[in-house]
Amino acid sequence: MSGPGPQGPAILLEGVCKAFSAQAVLKGIDLGVACGEVMVLIGRSGSGKSTLVRCVAGLTRIDAGRIRVQGVTVQDPAARLSRAATAEAQRRVGMVFQDFNLFPHLRVGRNVSLALQLVRRLSAEAAEARAAEVLARVGLAGFRDRFPWQLSGGQQQRVAIARALAMRPEVMLFDEVTSALDPELVREVLAVMRELAEDGMTMVVVTHEMGFAKGVADRVVFMNEGVIAEEGPPEIVLAEPRQESTRIFLRHLMEA
Amino acid sequence: MAYKWDWAVVFNAHTLASFGNGVAITAEVSFAGLALGLALGLATAVPRAAKVPVASQLVYAYVDFFRTTPILVQLIWVFYVLPVLSGINLSAWMAGVLTIGLNSGAFLSEIFRGGLVSIGQGQRDAAQVLGLSRAQALLHIIVPQALRRVLPAVVNVLIVVVKDSSLVSIIAVADMTYRAEAAVAQTYRPFEFYTALAVVYFLLTYPLSLLSSAVERRFHVT
Ligand SMILES: Nc1ncnc2c1ncn2[C@@H]1O[C@H](COP(=O)(O)OP(=O)(O)O)[C@@H](O)[C@H]1O
Ligand SMILES: [Mg+2]
Questions:
Q1: Does A224 sit in the ligand 1 pocket, CB within 6 Å?
Q2: pLDDT score, position A25
Q3: Prediction pTM value
């Protein structure tokens, strides 16, 4: 595990356990993500990747263990947490989903500016200005007045990234954000993510795009059946994995 | 059939004026009843969709009761029985609006609940990671989308309400059905008056049914 940066890790999971009914999905995950690090999370379908990022985002409650975001505990079933502090820390985490989850009844600009007004309490003008700024950043400057369904999948996903970025998160979580896209649209979304990485954003990226992992990740983590089976720099984990389960997974990925 | 129609009994200034007042009262009772029904339906759909323990059971009982008893019986009960039990005297107009509101509210509650639960978890997740509170997510994300989806069904309830409002004539609210009955009693011309009455109901509700299909087309894309 790469050590914490000068300000400590951006995300720290300690002994995180999560079960759905009787099925244990996360079985004691210990994982730290340093500030500015790009961590790519890989693993078979059902291995618990989405559950892990959802726990970090606060969408799923954990059963045991502890999750901290920039030193602030956001989940700890064993402790009583200050809701205000937890909420504040949770706000530093942005998340992008596989199927975009844009708000279909709102125009692109409003998709981005809504939470700025409701949560960040910006004025309408300030929220719109910031929305325009992040939309330009993802290459969608002229799209403010369109509805999501008028956009291609790749454009919609870039709006979703802009919407998350507008909140000025310090950590961004990406859960298979290109899996629902036609192959020719994957590239434009990955390009935006690559730029974000170059700007120093702390990122956790669940993906099957091995090119992205090789080119952008500082570290690749391989999950298998609710545990971290292997982790390390991409050139090691992807090229010469130590674990048999990692080898099998990568071979299946190549064949697919 | 050799019935000789005599439309002059309908088309004279006195009758038309009285009928016009009746139309206004029908519209009034319908809209007031529907407004109450919409408020009740929305307020009760939220706890049911969210499966709030006690509240959702209460709503369930309310919805079931009003869906399984005839609105005519409900109207009579509200007008004659409720004042005795509660000690609150209701005018006939109030009793009519209250009954229509309670009745349509039960149907709307079901419709809204269906609309609310049809909005996927992904929308709630997206709202939550952006930091919206549950109330904000409901108000800005879930309810607006749910309303668009159920709008055609709501317009159908509106049509039913306009037609059901004719029942208030039996507790002597002077709506258009009541006026027609009064006119029939005076003129012994039921054919003309009930035909005219049916046509006026048609003219009131048919635009609504057109609206319903227009709305369906307009919001087809979600
Ligand atoms: N909300 C849920 N309720 C019940 N089971 C769930 C839920 N979310 C995930 N699971 C189960 O947990 C396991 C891991 O799922 P997930 O974290 O989505 O894996 P991955 O993202 O790696 O494909 C799967 O077996 C899945 O069926
Ligand atoms: Mg997943």
A1: no
A2: 97
A3: 0.85
Q: ipTM score here?
A: 0.93
Residue B2: inside a domain, yes or no? no
Does B140 contact A at CB distance below 8 Å? Answer: yes
Ligand nearest, relative to CA of residue A25: 1
Instruction: Report how far residue A191's alpha carbon sits from residue B167's, in angstroms, rounded to the nearest whole number.
Output: 66
State the residue for tokens 């079933």.
A77
Does B1 reside within a domain?
no
Which ligand has the nearest atom to the CA of A48? 1
Task: Find the residue in B nearest to A162 (Cα).
Answer: B130
Q: Report yes or no: A39 and A203 within 8 Å, Cβ to Cβ.
A: yes
In a domain, B63, yes or no: yes
How many domains, in total, are found in chain B?
1
B128 vs A: CB within 8 A: yes
Alpha-carbon distance B31 to nearest alpha carbon in chain A (angstroms):
27
Buried-state track A43-73, b at ≥16 Cβ within 10 A, e below 16: bbeebbbbbbbbbbbbbbebeebbbbbbeeb
Q: Would the CB of A45 count as within 6 Å of ligand 1?
A: yes
Q: What pLDDT score was predicted for residue A1?
A: 40
Per-residue model confidence as pLDDT tens digits over B30-62: 999 999 999 999 999 989 888 889 999 999 999
Compare all CA atoms of chain B with the CA of A60 and give the residue at the minimum distance: B125
Domain with residue B108: its CATH number is: 1.10.3720.10
**Cβ of residue B132 closer than 8 Å to a chain A Cβ:** yes
Q: Indicate the DSSP class of residue B7.
A: G
Q: Note down the domain range covering B67.
A: 7-218
A84 has a pLDDT exceeding 90: no
Distance between first and last Cα of chain B: 54
